[in-house]
Amino acid sequence: MDVSFTAATRPRSPGAALKGLLARGLVRAGRRPSIASPRLDGRQPTGESPDWSDSFYFTGSSRAPDAPLAFFARLGFRPSRTEAWLGVWTPQTGLLELNAADAPATSGLSACGLSLECLTPGQRWQVTFDGALRAPSGEMHPVQLSARFEGAGALYDFEHGTPPALVARTLSMEPWSRAFFEELQAMHQAHVEQPGRYEVALALGGAERRATLYGVRDHSFGPRRWRDFRGHAWLSASLDDGSAFNVTLVRLPKLRHVLRGYLFRDGRFSPVTDAPTLEVLWQHGAPPERYPLWFVAGGRRHELEVRLDASHRYLLADGALAFHEGFASFTLGSVSGRGISEFSLPATGERSR
After folding, report:
1. % of residues, the chain, pLDDT over 90
2. Three-class DSSP category at 262
3. Exposed, middle or buried by CB within 10 Å (0-12, 13-18, 19+), for 107?
4. What's the distance, CA 230 to chain centroid?
5. Does the predicted TM-score (pTM) go above 0.90?
6. Which domains does the chain have, with CATH numbers?
7. Neighbouring-strand partners of residue 167
8. Counting beta carbons within 10 angstroms of the beta carbon of residue 196, is it exposed (0 to 12), middle (13 to 18) or buried (19 or more)?
9. DSSP for residue 223
10. Which residues 6+ apart lie within 8 Å of 49 measured at CB?
11. Confidence at residue 140, expressed as pLDDT on a 0 to 100 scale
């Protein structure tokens, strides 16, 4: 079995190598200017497609080993509904989660008690929640969350930051036709991300707590069809040395091997250029709970160990896609950190460890 993106997309013949060179030229010619602009921090005009999605995602975790705390929050705005996700985790409570996953469509930045506010475009956001979250036991807990985000660097544009050679390898693996390129154009998404810090106030169970968390915010917009996903991994962590990373793997009907990601260190982004395939990660469980992870960025290979702390399972695409949103601990040599271990796969392909 191929163990890396590079091995899985290696040309197998001179014709395949020539196709790869042609793909690289097409990618360079079609590359648009970066959209990593504060002007795009707000809601985007709804596209004509019924699959249009304008998604805002925030997540933060504490680095303190004695009192860990983590949260994720997402509002995904569709033409006819809003996808609302929220999870708050501590070792004492386990994962507390929002009872409802969908809400009516809205023109603002709020749903199900969860509200987002852009304070300074490109730099500062406010995430608030006032409502009830469900414990693993089924018990409902009143929760008040206030998380103020401040970016630690610029926005990272996944399309613009990914080397053309990497995109070309993905494209050259597939049979080309006019319908193929039309389908790619129809499913094109914009996606930016920003590492940063959260100042959090949490009221839970009669106790109030303040903490500094580290994580990312994410904004993507364009057509998103959950039914097209054949599996993905979105792995993101902030480490104790101040660095952060993202490794994203996606499998779609028209694109079997998609790799994106970055390493953020000393205020600069280096794109991820190699990583294991989804099949390799699924060998450790689907989704995996403990697994090794490696990626290449900045000319170096980085080796990590990942341990899942808690996870919430969403059923999407009318129950066909199992989507697991998990908090995890990451170890890179002697440096530790926390973040997100997110996987999706066909619901029939799940297996526990």
Report:
1. 73
2. strand
3. exposed
4. 16
5. yes
6. 5-30+50-349 (2.40.370.10)
7. none
8. buried
9. E
10. 186, 223
11. 94
